[in-house]
Amino acid sequence: MLKEELSTISLETKVTRRWTSQILTNLTFWVLIAIIAGVLLGYYAPATAVKMEVIGKTFIDIIKLFIAPIIFLTIVLGISGMDSLRKVGRIGIKSLLYFEVVSTLSLAIGILMALVLQPGRIDKTQLDLQNASKYTSNAGKSFDWGAFFASNLTLQVLVAAIVIGILLSFSRHRKTVVLRLGQVSKWVFTALKYVMYLAPLGAFGGMAFTVGKFGLHTLVPLAKLMLTMYLTMFLFIVLLLGGILRYYKMSIWKFLKYIREELLLVLGTSSSESALPSIMMKLEKLGCSKSVVGLVVPTGYSFNLDGTSIYLSMAVMFIAQLYDVKLSIFEMLTVIGILMLTSKGAAGVTGSGFIVLASTLAALHRIPVEGLAFLLGVDKFMSEARAITNIIGNGVATIVIAKSEKEFQPVGPSIEIGKTAVAN
């Protein structure tokens, strides 16, 4: 009897130790702890928290060093390994069509939710007025696509990699070059794996700075806008993106669970770029082919910004409601039309979202551009929702394109409906 009791206790101890070990060695756990610690430091010691900005920025800067080589290697290896270049063109066109349809729907959803919930029907005298002159001074100017391309390294690397991948496909030295590039790719991803252990520090620094600099008290006057924004993005992810995945017999909840580390990292750093290399690895491990991941994800980071689209259209409606400007259906359709083009430029450049907003408001000639000043104080707290929605949208887009092209071969965890996830 005593032996059985001791055996039971020993088994329970082993299970407890194993469970504890799994938690303490889980990166997601430490990123979550870091975010909580950052919020607490920002709230109770804002002066110290603001100094933590350097930690968050340094982590993002290190991650950015990996973005260009990973995109380049993934695309070149993907294209040169494809059966035909016609397939490359088909994937590219299909991706752009998907991006345009879904991002246009996200613009319309942002306007619809703003009309229903009326986030701008508040007393603007209670709001903090910030200096928006650097965005409003050039509001009348059209968006400079040349400058956008020149400042967007991701897009530049994407174009260069596609050209080199196509040229390599015709080269007689293709096999040798692909073999060497494959080795380099392994080294880069191995180095990235070790860098990701610093993710909790990056999340801590980013969150501490945000809360310390802007303060949680700034959320109160614009709580209605914040709640409307977060609710809209939640519904967009669950209903629209979830519906798209369900069509392909996949679960949005399983997918979110699968990329939880990336989502927490984006939440902490307020930057979807911080998770770009990691999400590319995860999608390949999930079963998407290297070529589809390489073409869709980097392109999506410039042209498939679902979260940013929702924010931009809702922000226009918010400012209109704030100044009691009633927009006609035609004017709302005009907003969608303008943002369909200009929202594609709201990536890669800090503050470009406000420049796009200013240009859109100036084009309407009815809503005061100065209304942007009311958004500046709370924008940082909404950037997390934008970035998280953007990364989920690009992940779903990659799965959709891979599935439609029969370039999806499950090799890791399953996110299919009714199937149990396989541990890696």
UniProtKB/TrEMBL annotation:
<keyword id="KW-0813">Transport</keyword>
<keyword id="KW-1133">Transmembrane helix</keyword>
<keyword id="KW-0472">Membrane</keyword>
<feature type="transmembrane region" description="Helical">
    <location>
        <begin position="222"/>
        <end position="242"/>
    </location>
</feature>
<feature type="transmembrane region" description="Helical">
    <location>
        <begin position="65"/>
        <end position="85"/>
    </location>
</feature>
<dbReference type="InterPro" id="IPR036458">
    <property type="entry name" value="Na:dicarbo_symporter_sf"/>
</dbReference>
<feature type="transmembrane region" description="Helical">
    <location>
        <begin position="191"/>
        <end position="210"/>
    </location>
</feature>
<keyword id="KW-0769">Symport</keyword>
<dbReference type="GO" id="GO:0070778">
    <property type="term" value="P:L-aspartate transmembrane transport"/>
</dbReference>
<dbReference type="GO" id="GO:0015366">
    <property type="term" value="F:malate:proton symporter activity"/>
</dbReference>
<keyword id="KW-1003">Cell membrane</keyword>
<feature type="transmembrane region" description="Helical">
    <location>
        <begin position="301"/>
        <end position="320"/>
    </location>
</feature>
<dbReference type="GO" id="GO:0015141">
    <property type="term" value="F:succinate transmembrane transporter activity"/>
</dbReference>
<protein>
    <submittedName>
        <fullName>Glutamate/aspartate:proton symporter GltP</fullName>
    </submittedName>
</protein>
<feature type="transmembrane region" description="Helical">
    <location>
        <begin position="327"/>
        <end position="347"/>
    </location>
</feature>
<dbReference type="GO" id="GO:0015138">
    <property type="term" value="F:fumarate transmembrane transporter activity"/>
</dbReference>
<dbReference type="InterPro" id="IPR018107">
    <property type="entry name" value="Na-dicarboxylate_symporter_CS"/>
</dbReference>
<feature type="transmembrane region" description="Helical">
    <location>
        <begin position="97"/>
        <end position="117"/>
    </location>
</feature>
<keyword id="KW-0812">Transmembrane</keyword>
<feature type="transmembrane region" description="Helical">
    <location>
        <begin position="23"/>
        <end position="45"/>
    </location>
</feature>
<dbReference type="InterPro" id="IPR001991">
    <property type="entry name" value="Na-dicarboxylate_symporter"/>
</dbReference>
<feature type="transmembrane region" description="Helical">
    <location>
        <begin position="145"/>
        <end position="170"/>
    </location>
</feature>
<dbReference type="GO" id="GO:0005886">
    <property type="term" value="C:plasma membrane"/>
</dbReference>
<dbReference type="Pfam" id="PF00375">
    <property type="entry name" value="SDF"/>
</dbReference>
